[in-house]
Amino acid sequence: MNIIAWVVLGIIAGAIGKAIYPGAQGGGILSTIVLGIVGAFIGGSLVTFLTTGALSFTATSLSIPGIFVAVLGAIIAIFLWGLIARRTV
């Protein structure tokens, strides 16, 4: 998949993931794109692992099922980022 398709998938998946996930995540358009691209890789790798049993680092395609998987991956990425960036007060 070329870089323009990754950016488009990142915008779509990141925006939907941020809208679905409860609470405020902050960040602008760049963080949304990065979140969506990371979500595409997380979701694609997870689906590949569940279907083939092999763990490989793959991204989803720019299609309806690919966007669904990327949104699920973006939600996982938001959760993991919340765990990492959490402040201890």
Architecture overview:
The chain is mainly alpha-helical. It has one domain (3-85). Helix content is 72%, strand content 0%. It has helices at residues 3-20, 29-52, 64-85. Helix 1 (3-20) packs across helix 3 (64-85). It is globular, with a radius of gyration of 13 Å. The N and C termini lie far apart (43 Å). The relative contact order is 0.21. The model has no long low-confidence stretch (mean pLDDT 79).
Give the DSSP E fraction (strand runs of 2 or more residues). under 5%
Overall pLDDT level: 79
Number of domain modules: 1
User: Tally the helices: what do you get?
Assistant: 3
Gross morphology: globular
Q: How can the largest sheet be summarized? A: none
Helical residues, percent: over 70%
Return residue spans where pLDDT drops below 50 for at least 5 consecutive residues. none
Order of helices and strands: HHH
Distance between the termini: 43 Å
Count of DSSP E strands?
A: 0
**What value does the Rg take, in angstroms?**
13 Å
Coarse structural class: mainly alpha
What's the layout of helices and strands?
Blueprint: H1 3-20, H2 29-52, H3 64-85
Helix pairs in contact: 1-2, 1-3, 2-3
What would you say about this model in short?
It contains 3 helices and no strands.
Which characteristics define this entry?
about 90 residues, mainly alpha, single chain
